[in-house]
Amino acid sequence: MTNYWPRFSRDNFENSVPPIDYLNWYIPRLQEARTHNLSFSGMQYNWDIQGMLGEKIADIGKPYMADIEDPRIIIAKREGVSPDNVLITHGATQGINIALLTAIASIRDKVDGKIVVAAESPTYAPIPQTALILADEVIRVNKTPPTTGHGHWRINYEEWETAMKKSHIIMITPISNPSGWGLHIEDRNWIIKHAEENDVIVIADEAYNDAYRHIEQSRAIHTFGDNYISINSLTKVYAMGPIRFGWLISDSKTIAIAKNIFMTFSGVMSSPTMRIAAEALKRLDVVDKEIEYYRSENLPILRAVLEKHGIDWNEPSGGVFGCFELPNNLDSEVFADQHCKENELLVVPGSMFSDRMTSWVRVAWSIEPSLFRLAVEALDKSLDSALN
Predict the structure, then answer these.
(1) How many CB atoms within 10 Å of residue 310?
(2) What is the CATH number of domain 59-283?
(3) Sign of the CA dihedral 130, 33, 345, 373?
(4) 122 preceded by cis ω (within 30°)?
(5) Residues of 66-103 as b/e, b for ≥16 C-beta within 10 angstroms?
(6) For residue range 322-357, what is the model confidence (pLDDT) as tens digits?
(7) How far is CA 178 from CA 47, 56, 114, 322, in A?
(8) Phi and psi angles of residue 12, each rounded to the nearest 5 degrees, phi first
(9) By three-state DSSP, how is residue 251 classified?
(10) Where are the domain boundaries for CATH 3.90.1150.10 in the chain?
(11) Three-state helix/strand/coil letters over 252-298
């Protein structure tokens, strides 16, 4: 049986690169085009690109230099930083690559021996697997579900302290995928304190953070000072994945290194991407309102179905997705590929994110309410089939 979860070692892949296994599971199932889909990792929103660009759409293939408002300026204003603190990238996944390369470049000459990266689990596979390619060793550090069943997923301070003492860089996701829960403020402050004490660079994939901006004490990692790198994009929260637009925010010295790395690998951003993003960045509040509308309409329906089946639902305080544990240790891949498939429904097994989540399922409420209602009816039938 294939293991789809993220890899933290090169075992069985010496002199090679481990695959991103979950895509080998997910892409064929997307191609099945099941009628109902709760598998989305981000917001589903239909941008009117032609209406947004207007007559400017005729210029979409022309070089954008000095011809559009610099997206860095828009992002910098939104985040309260200087444009010199912002680097535009081809999406958040390239942002992960550039951020890690930047961190390694900034310490390479002073590190005596191998470069060690700590990466959290459960997680998005490219985070630890980028580190497997670029660094010498990756240490796994875990987040675990709340013992009460409700609230934040937490970190074990002893485990994380041991890892951070051995590491030069730590990679975290403040909004955990698949739980949808944000990093507890006590855990966040502990990580910052111990990163400073151990001279560890913190890289944070914050691709979901914007859906939590309204929550008290929500704070980007870059705001804590130098050696903290935030990664974000228009993909997950703002439904602009096809244009591949992301950014890094950090201190100006770090961003200067990142810029040189980006130009080495990619030259400049594409004109269509920059032109569309420059206009979309001015209209993000439209999607922010839609997220809250979807939450208000969709979550009560999901709550009712999970309660009906006796499933303890740990609902995150924001965002567009969450996860739940199936009763009786039911295998979530079997649930997705048999029971859900019979009802034309696609969900994501927790095993795509961690070997400790083989009975968990991630669901998203990021689709239009009439479609969501039908999808949850299919989920209800699938749970009936699996549990009875």
Answers:
(1) 9
(2) 3.40.640.10
(3) positive
(4) yes
(5) eebebbbebbbeebebebebbbbbbbbbbbbbbbbbbb
(6) 999 999 999 999 999 999 999 999 999 999 999 999
(7) 25, 38, 31, 6
(8) 75, 5
(9) coil
(10) 21-45+285-387
(11) HHHHHHHHHHHHHHHCCCCHHHHHHHHHHHHHHHHHHHHHHHHHHHH
Residues found in the chain:
388
Is the distance from CB of 357 to CB of 3 less than 8 angstroms? no
Label residue 73 left, alpha or beta by phi (over 0 means left) and psi (-120 to 50 means alpha): alpha
φ and ψ at 231, to 5 degrees? Answer: -120, 135
H-helix segments, 108-141: 126-134
Dist. CA 37–CA 347, nearest whole Å:
7
Q: Which two tokens stand for residue 280?
A: 């979309």
Q: In sequence order, what DSSP letters do the residues of 206-246 get, joined into one string?
A: -TTGGGGTTSTT---GGGG-TTEEEEEESSTTTS-GGG--E
Q: What fold characterizes domain 21-45+285-387? A: Aspartate Aminotransferase, domain 1 (3.90.1150)
Per-residue tokens: 218: 């929500």
Q: Determine the 3-state secondary structure of 82 from DSSP.
A: coil
pLDDT digits (tens, 9 = 90+) for 122-149: 999 999 999 999 999 999 999 999 999 8
Per residue in 183-228, pLDDT (tens digit) is 999 999 999 999 999 999 999 999 999 999 888 668 999 999 999 9
Query: Which residues, in sequence order, are CB contacts of 160 under 8 Å at separation 6+?
Result: 118, 141, 190, 191, 194
Instruction: Give the residue range(s) of CATH 3.40.640.10 domains in the chain.
Output: 59-283
Pairing state of beta strands 36-37 and 345-346? parallel
By DSSP bridging, strand 201-205 and strand 228-233 are parallel
The number of CA neighbours under 13 Å toward the Cβ of 266 is: 17
- Hey, which residues does 86 pair with through a beta bridge? 249
